[in-house]
Amino acid sequence: MSAEKLILCSGLVCIDVIQTCEQFPIEDSDQRCIDYHLQRGGNASNNCTVLRKLGSNCEFFGTISRSSSFTRFIIEDYKKHNIVFNNIVYHDDCEAPLSTIIINNQNGSRTIIHANKNLPELKFDDFRKLDLLNYSWIHFEGRNVLETIKMLEYVKKWKSDTRNSLTVSVEVEKPKSDIINLIHFADVVFISKDFATFNGYKNMEETVHGFSQKIKTRMTSCSIETR
């Protein structure tokens, strides 16, 4: 019997430092938080966590620092959640990306301060080493657009040449104009509230209708992510 195919999530893993405060800190003040914790973060990495909790087998595919003090924490957490990471791309002499997240306990707002000193992004040459027969679904985080387009084009050609079924989804989150080029390759598109607003849409209905008109290829789903 062949092994069950995986859902591959391609994108970022980072460290999240989450601090909950009674209210948002005043600039140049000294304030205590009421709670804090450290966790593995990054959109693609978090997607894997959710998929495992829902009972789906999945794999994280991204870059990671071999020399960062946080690397062991990340790897052990993948093992804890039974997330496959066999094809992760290691880099030397760089730091793990880190996000400081401030949660305002009064209104639930979430402020994220992200830092990535020098960890390289995924490249197409990394992606083409994968055996796509291992996957039933590939989800791409919308980042490093030029390289991600190469990956999407590669998957499209592979599907055409092999006639294998493989669902492709893309997440467009950041309010940047170039990432819209990714959605034409996707069967499923996840659109953030920030990206929808950036494109002039005021609500979910406007966003779905507007992007349905723009996308020339078939789009089977559009989900608006809110914080």
TrEMBL record:
PANTHER family: KETOHEXOKINASE, PHOSPHOTRANSFERASE SYSTEM TRANSPORT PROTEIN. It comes from the Eukaryota. Transmembrane segments: none annotated. One of its GO terms (biological process) is phosphate-containing compound metabolic process. This is Carbohydrate kinase PfkB domain-containing protein. Residues 5-192 form the Carbohydrate kinase PfkB domain.
